[in-house]
Amino acid sequence: MEIRGSNTPLLEWTGDGLAIGLFEDAVELTGELATLDEKLAGSIKELIAEEEFKGKQGSSTSIRVGSHSPVRKVIVVGLGKPEALKLETLRRAAAVAARTAKKQRCKTLAIHLPILNDDQAQTAQALAEGVQLALYQDNRFKSEPEDKSPQVEQVDLLGLGGQEAAITRANQIASGVFLARQLVAAPANSVTPITMAETATQIASDHGLQLEILEQEDCEKLNMGAFLGVAKASDLPPKFIHLTYKPEGTPRRKLAIIGKGLTFDSGGLNIKGAGSGIETMKIDMGGAAATLGAAKAIGQLKPDVEVHFISAVTENMISGHAMHPGDILTASNGKTIEVNNTDAEGRLTLADALVFADKLGVDAIIDLATLTGACVVALGEDIAGLFTPDDALATQLEKASEISGEKIWRLPMEEKYFEGLKSGLADMKNTGPRAGGSITAALFLKQFVKDTAAWAHLDVAGPVWAEKENGYNGPGATGFGVRTLVNWVLSEV
Ligand code: BES
Ligand code: MN
Ligand code: ZN
């Protein structure tokens, strides 16, 4: 599919589908839309008058146009209230237009939507992202593609001629999101620690990043006892991935991004019981997938920032050499951990990854992890939990998330709750009481970062997967995190 910026006037565009946006309670059609309505013999006015279409955000309807017309279908997309219009509204509107065009078997589509704050580049990027992300398909595991209807082949963003650079940016970012979605959607017999390392190798060679893969022996030398404790039961070798993007010249900032990389989480000997969703636990590398997706995007966008992409990848399995509940592990910073629950494995792998990142001398570290069911209970499927002691970093991430439309919400790091992790034998246990489970998880992670680097943790257990179609996401893996991370890396601070 090709997306282009075009200055062809609305009334002169010819092709299969023409998508226009209408605000909620748009009483009057003006300008080109009024002329279009005349051409359509008042069909748009009729839709509004008969209350078939109210302009609610996310709603859409299509008007069949006579065979004499230069367009086959007019797709009307709701934009909600004009005063609430933001980038995400436009991204979602473009997604609705693209999905509707596909259903209507349109091969060519023009999208005519308002330009936000006169910012053509930002608008073009958001629209292109919406189209790309909405039309994503994954046929890798079908013997034959199920959907044989025609594909949308060409999309013209009207009024946005000359915005090729912004569209290219959207395509590069989308390629990172697609990689993350593919990695998350693929089952655990397809995406393994070995194939994750291969993916990192591919990114490094495609986009000129440096790559270091630490094998088990290397991790042993670094005393990564927490990561290796989790990895012990698996028949597959653990892989500690470290990709580095270095700009030409002196970097403006040095950053590290860490992703939880459990290619499967059975729970270990505290095996996941009935109703715990064990069959969905291929998604437990969603943080690592977003990290690799961001690496792929950053490798193409080439900002003047140094970024380290890190993931300690393994599976949490059961076997004769599985860690026992109650085992005491020593992490690479020397801290000891009593593993009172082998299903709280993510924080063990992250502990050694955080210690590793901290030694790189970066300005800030962000980790993304499908860490706790408790966070999904707190915030639901669509919103990630943000935990950080650093207000400035919280603000940076909230801004990046506002632009991406990936929702995050800050939760408190209530120090008092660390009492729940007190161990009689070791420095700490790996789990505390059920209540406040996502907070104690964050407090556990904090033990492995020094105060010198700004650090934030995003619990993405909910939003890495969308059960149903939701805007440009779902059904399936969302690639959550990639776009917020990219915005954060690109942001001027
Ligand atoms: N990978 C899970 C968390 C998870 C749950 C991700 C649901 C996605 C959806 C994590 O390793 C885990 O098992 N966490 C436990 C922690 C508990 C043992 C303290 C949980 O959330 O139940
Ligand atoms: Mn677990
Ligand atoms: Zn897990």
Automatic annotation (TrEMBL):
Could you name the active-site residues?
272, 347
Q: How is the cofactor bound?
A: Binds 2 manganese ions per subunit.
Annotated Cytosol aminopeptidase domain residues:
341-348
Which parts of the sequence bind Mn(2+) 1?
265, 343, 345
Requisite cofactors? Mn(2+)
Enzyme class (EC, first level): hydrolase
Q: For this protein, what is the EC number?
A: 3.4.11.1, 3.4.11.10
Identify the main location.
cytoplasm
Q: Where does Mn(2+) 2 bind?
A: 260, 265, 284, 345
Record field: catalytic activity: Release of an N-terminal amino acid, Xaa-|-Yaa-, in which Xaa is preferably Leu, but may be other amino acids including Pro although not Arg or Lys, and Yaa may be Pro. Amino acid amides and methyl esters are also readily hydrolyzed, but rates on arylamides are exceedingly low; Release of an N-terminal amino acid, preferentially leucine, but not glutamic or aspartic acids
Give the transmembrane region(s): none
The cross-references to InterPro entries, in alphabetical order and at most eight, read: Leucine_aapep/pepB, Macro_dom-like, Peptidase_M17_C, Peptidase_M17_leu_NH2_pept, Peptidase_M17_N
Under the GO molecular function aspect, what terms does this record hold?
manganese ion binding; metalloaminopeptidase activity
User: What biological process terms from GO does the record include?
Assistant: proteolysis
- Can you quote a single GO CC term? cytoplasm
Keyword terms of this UniProt record: Aminopeptidase, Cytoplasm, Hydrolase, Manganese, Metal-binding, Protease
Q: Where in the cell does this protein reside?
A: Cytoplasm
Any single Pfam family the record assigns to this protein: Peptidase_M17_N
Recorded family membership: Belongs to the peptidase M17 family.
Record function comment = Presumably involved in the processing and regular turnover of intracellular proteins. Catalyzes the removal of unsubstituted N-terminal amino acids from various peptides.
Tell me the protein's name.
Probable cytosol aminopeptidase
Q: Which organism is it from?
A: Scytonema hofmannii PCC 7110
